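check this one:
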Amino acid sequence: MRDGYIARWKGAEYDSSPDGAHVRLYSPTGGDGFVEVADGRFRRGVPIGELDDFFYVRTVCTWRGEPFFVLGASGDWLRLEYRGGRADVARSLGLEPYDNGVYQIWAPADEVGEIAEQYL
């Protein structure tokens, strides 16, 4: 499930993060100009003007008829964040308050529908 910045550079897609006039590209395998920053994680800075594309992607879905973001997965469970904006609905679904106005839950993956990527 993707949730974050994506950069296309030289025909490949990378998880990325903006850094002023540059974008940090992250790769699990490294390559020319990439520096290992952790086991299995390599980073390279690229001027934003050299990118083929740069965008933000979120994975969205529905659960029990309500709209959610998919934040992650663990086995047969998905971590969901409610995006409907109604506290009464969040409470009726038994969602956990995560922050002020933010509600999350672990839901069985087989109960989650309409999973799609949303490009912003």
